[in-house]
Amino acid sequence: MKIAVQHTHRALLIITTSLLVVLSSCVIEEPLYETDHPEYGVVTLTTNWDNRTDGVAIPEKYLVRIGEDYNHSFSNVTNEIDYLFSQGVYPVYIYNETEEISIKGESASVSVDKDGYTKAQPGWFFTGSDDIRIAGDTDELVTVYMQQQIRQLSFVFSLVSNRADKLTRISAVLTGAGGSLNIDRGVVTGGSVNVQPVFEKQPSGAYRATVRLLGVAGNVQSLRLTLFFSEGSPNEVTASSDLSERLVGFNEDKKTPLTLSAQIVEIQTPIGGFTASFSDWIEGEEEIVVEIDD
């Protein structure tokens, strides 16, 4: 009887040891993850607005599009995107909505008035784009550098004329402006449009007009003025100036305003009429002195 008990204990020990070996071989090691979203990525987006004109404020709101499914507006510079992204490469488009600019797809266009002229003072417009790669189980930090897409252009002229004090009104047309912009590439698209600058007399006696443009389009830009006088015949005189050379490269460095200054010289013709012409334009707001031959 004692021998039988010892054999039973030995059998139990063997069985127990075997079970422990089997159980230990069945232990599955769980993978270690860095985040609580191992199959997806989360994005924290920062928009950099440094590339803008002095005095121009960061927009109060701007729209962010990531891929096909995510659209949301933000007001802070840095935001955590409340969306889980599958692994992949996503296009990012960012822009702000502003006065007199409409958005359709990837195209931004300046509004046109009832006479067919593009609005001369649209709001400040910014765009940013990038392609970002998002991996699973990551918190991605993304910075997009915003680009100012509106450039300020000012014209200043003084009038040299025996009847300068009789000038009552100025009608102006700037040709060769850009009317549309591709948001993704940040380039002017489509044909050229015309803008009507509004000239106002300054305390110095000069006349000044300022427009805001998406850029210039085509190879030819010109400024055409019609001057209206209360006395003299004819009581209106036209002067035109080719600005094409002066506006080469205008679509670059849009954060830097450009001011062009000139004189308009009106002379009386031998038959009693008047003609007017521009002097050469110079960059900056300076007094232009033109000598008139008697």
Structure description:
The chain has one helix at 2-25, and strands at 41-48, 62-66, 70-74, 78-80, 88-95, 101-104, 107-110, 126-134, 138-145, 147-148, 151-160, 167-182, 187-195, 200-201, 207-213, 222-229, 236-242, 258-268, 274-278, 282-283. The chain is elongated. It is mostly beta strands and 294 residues long. Strands 6, 7, 12, 13, 16 and 17 form a 6-stranded antiparallel β-sheet that branches. Strands 11, 14, 15, 18, 19 and 20 form a 6-stranded mixed β-sheet that branches. A hairpin with a 4-residue loop joins strand 12 (167-182) and strand 13. The protein folds into 2 domains: 41-148, Immunoglobulin-like (Sandwich), CATH 2.60.40; 151-283, Sandwich (Immunoglobulin-like). It is 8% helix and 45% strand.
Element layout with pairings:
Elements: H1 2-25, E1 41-48, E2 62-66, E3 70-74, E4 78-80, E5 88-95, E6 101-104, E7 107-110, E8 126-134, E9 138-145, E10 147-148, E11 151-160, E12 167-182, E13 187-195, E14 200-201, E15 207-213, E16 222-229, E17 236-242, E18 258-268, E19 274-278, E20 282-283
Parallel strand pairs: 1-9, 11-18
Antiparallel strand pairs: 1-4, 2-3, 2-5, 5-8, 6-7, 7-12, 8-10, 11-15, 12-13, 12-16, 14-15, 16-17, 18-19, 18-20
